[in-house]
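Translate structure to sequence.
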């Protein structure tokens, strides 16, 4: 039972790691000069966020990071898709809600070691109460609303894009959208747009 095979059979999991250099071989330092690789990026930095969630608590990560990126002079794009499209839909963007359902990390800041049962979220009125509580926390910290965050991002030179599939699925028109959305684009358009960029999915 404890015998170890001399030549164990190892499954092929794909690419093999590069062979280790021979320890006896001398190590030479890279030479400086025209042939040395550049240590700085070839062009300006670009970052693209995919906003796919429409809950109040999931709206802020992409917006806060996009605002921070713009503050660092990074070209910034946000692609709103599926429920994330609610962030730029006029009839929803000011009414985003926070729910405990599906949130296994839910707890009160005053009692971080006391978990809150997710089943409480199905009780009528609980989602509205937790949403009001979160909005108050954001207000106390002077964090702008979703609409105000989008205004700041657009004013700072950020680019907002809507997903064509989501747009069509929801039967929306351009009049339904927040004014800062530049265009409705397809997934293929976003792939082209994000070439060379750091992509963060939220």
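Result:
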């Amino acid at each position: 039972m404890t015998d170890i095979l001399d030549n164990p059979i190892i499954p092929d999991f794909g690419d093999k790691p590069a062979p280790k250099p021979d320890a006896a071989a001398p190590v030479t330092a890279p030479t400086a000069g025209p042939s040395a690789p550049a240590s700085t990026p070839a062009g300006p930095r670009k970052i693209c966020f995919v906003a796919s969630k429409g809950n109040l608590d999931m709206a802020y990560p992409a917006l806060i990071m996009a605002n921070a990126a713009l503050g660092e002079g990074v070209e910034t794009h946000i692609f709103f898709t599926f429920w994330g499209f609610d962030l730029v839909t006029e009839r929803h963007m000011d009414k985003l809600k926070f729910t405990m359902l599906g949130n296994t990390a839910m707890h009160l800041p005053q009692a971080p070691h006391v978990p809150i049962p997710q089943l409480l979220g199905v009780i009528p009125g609980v989602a509205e109460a937790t949403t009001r509580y979160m909005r108050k926390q954001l207000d106390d910290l002077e964090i702008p609303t979703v609409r105000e965050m989008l205004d700041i991002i657009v004013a700072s030179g950020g680019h907002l894009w809507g997903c064509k599939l989501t747009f069509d699925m929801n039967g929306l028109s351009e009049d339904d959208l927040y004014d800062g959305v530049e265009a409705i684009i397809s997934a293929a358009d976003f792939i082209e747009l994000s070439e060379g960029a750091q992509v963060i999915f939220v």
